[in-house]
Amino acid sequence: MKILYLDCFSGISGDMMVSALVDAGASPERIETELKKLPISGYKLQWSKVIKKGISAIKLDVILDDNCRDRDAYSRHHDSLNHSTSHSHRHYSHIVDMINHSELPPEVKKRSQQIFHSIATAEAKIHHIPIENVHFHEIGAIDSIVDIVATAVALEELKIDQIISSPIPVGSGYIDCAHGTYPVPAPATLEILRNVPIKASKLPFELTTPTGAGIVKSQVTAFGPIPAMTISSIGYGAGTRDLPNQPNVLRVVVGEMVDVLLEHECSLPLQQEVIHILECHVDDMSGEALGYVMEGLFQKGALDVFYTPIFMKKNRPGVLLTVLASPNSAEECEQFIIKETTTLGVRKNICIRSILGRNSVSVPTPYGNIRVKQAIQNGKIIRQVPEYEDVKKAATDYQAAFLEVYTAAVEYARKRSREEEPQ
Questions:
Q1: Residue limits of CATH 3.10.20 in the chain
Q2: Nearest C-alpha neighbor of 43 from the set 60, 28, 29, 62
Q3: With contact defined as beta carbons under 8 Å apart, do 171 and 204 qualify?
Q4: What is the CATH number of domain 271-355?
C-alpha cells in the first residue's frame, strides 16, 4: 500500500501541500496541463527553490494578472446569467459545477470536490445557511481553486492509497478575514478541523489555513506518528512566512507500508483515524432490497454496514441502517442511501476511532496458501485471524473440515511469526 505521511510541524496550507508533493516527485508540468482543463484564466504558476531555516524547499506562487485578480471565465458566465456585478464571491455550487463539467480525471474531480465540500460544510454551519448558498471569499479566489485541484492532481499522479498525518498545529494571535479580525484559528479553520487532532502553538501566526484544513479533513484517514514504512521520496513545501525558530515548511513522506512491525521498534500509541457514521430508519423495504443496499454500500467503499431491528411510530417494526465510511467514501455512500432506500434523510456523525495496526500475510499450510490478518500493538502481533474465504475454499478443495483448515492456518501463522522475531 502506497502511503503519504504529512508532517505538519509548521502547519499546512494549499500552496505548501502542492509544493511538497512536487518536491516529492509530482510533475509541475502535469499539474499545469490538468489545470488548463478548468475554465479559469488570468494567472500563471511560478515554481521556485527557496531556503527556510537551512531547509531547501519548493515554493509555489500563483501570479494573477493585474486586471484579473479574482475573475475567471466560469464566474463571468454566471454573472451574465444572473446579471450580477459582484466579482469577489464564488458560490460552492458554481465551483462544483465547474469541476464536474471539466475534463479532469474522475479521481481528481472526486478529491477536489471532497476538499471543497469539507470547507463548504463548515462555512454553512458557521453562517447558518444551506450549503448550496455558501459563497467563498479567500477560498474562492483563483489561487485557492488552483491549490485544491493541483493537490488532487498530484495525489492522483503519485498513486497515493492512504494519507496519514501528524496532529495539526493551528497557531495563535489574530488574523484579518473578509468579515473582520478574528482569533487564530479562524472560525472556518476551527470548524473544518472538528474531530481532527490539533495541537497548540505559541507562534502568533495562522499556521493552518482553511484550504490546508480542508485537505486534511477530507483526505487524511489516520492521525499519529509516522508509520512503519519504506520511504521512496520526501518533499518540502515552503510557506510564505519566515518563522523565528523553525522552518516554515510542510514535510511529506511517500512510501510503502511495511509488512511486519518488528518487536524492537519503539512503543507506539494506537493509531487514530477519522470515520463517518451514517444512519437512517427504514420501515417499508423488503429484506431483498435491504440486502441489495448492503452489497452496494460495500461496493461504494463502506467500512462496515449493519442493520439493527427497531420499533418505529405506530408500533411498526423497522430497521436502523448504520454505515461506517472513510472520509473518501462517505459522500458517495450517503448519496447511494438516498437513491436506493426509502428514507427521507440521513444522519451523519464524524468520529475518531483508535485502531490497532493491521497487516495481511500469506502462510503456506497443508491446504495451500491462506491469507491471515494480523493485529499489531506496540510492534507485537497480538492476534492472527485467517481469511474466511481462503479457509472456505481450501476446505472445499481438500475436502477437509472448516475448523481443521482454520486451526492449521493459525498454527502455521504463529510458527512463521516466531521464526521472524528478532533474536
A1: 357-420
A2: 62
A3: yes
A4: 3.30.70.1380
| CA quadruple 215, 218, 220, 222: dihedral sign | positive
Taking the C-alpha atoms of residue 92 and residue 148, their distance in angstroms, rounded to an integer, is 14
* pLDDT string in tens for the chain (423-residue length): 899 999 999 999 999 999 999 999 999 999 999 999 999 888 999 999 999 999 999 999 999 886 554 444 434 333 333 333 334 467 888 899 999 999 999 999 999 999 999 999 888 888 888 887 787 655 557 888 999 999 999 999 999 999 999 999 998 988 887 678 888 888 889 999 988 899 988 888 899 999 999 999 999 988 888 988 899 999 999 999 999 889 999 999 999 987 544 333 444 456 677 889 999 999 999 999 999 999 999 999 999 999 999 999 888 899 999 999 988 788 899 999 999 999 999 998 888 788 887 788 899 999 999 999 998 887 788 899 999 999 999 999 999 999 999 999 999 999 888 877 655
Query: What does CATH list as the number for 357-420?
Result: 3.10.20
pTM: 0.65
- CATH 3.30.70.1380 range(s) for the chain read 271-355
